[in-house]
Amino acid sequence: xxxxxxxxxxxxxxxxxxxxxxxxxxxxxxxxxxxxxxxxxxxxxxxxxxxxxxxxxxxxxxxxxxxxxxxxxxxxxxxxxxxxxxxxxxxxxxxxxxxxxxxxxxxxxxxxxxxxxxxxxxxxxxxxxxxxxxxxxxxxxxxxxxxxxxxxxxxxxxxxx
Length: 161
Prior knowledge:
The chain has helices at 11-14, 17-29, 43-46, 53-56, 90-100, 128-160. The chain is mainly α. The protein has one domain.
């Protein structure tokens, strides 16, 4: 039997703790993107389970059946509100159409769409400007990788159906 080929980009190898720390330091210097708001925060303050490299190699499936998606027409950083399964723009439209057609669907969240915590582990509030600056930095650093992985996942689902 031929050896299986890896086609996904392994995010736990790309987004290491050292790399994330570098992304944060670079973001702090980016005054145009609100980096000064990140000055008082360390990587430990901003890291959550969805972004932790220890978890990136073992994705988790979570059932959010009957939990609404939050969709907006503007850039919005969600704090992890339990009222919504995810913040999404284009996938929310696809999900709505699938539900109307009584077709099962699934969404894959990725590192570039991570929720930014509203508080640090020490319970210090992270202001919205700092959360937006961190979200932007993560998206800028990893968006290309996750877009590739998302395209491969979509191709695989279409090919399997």
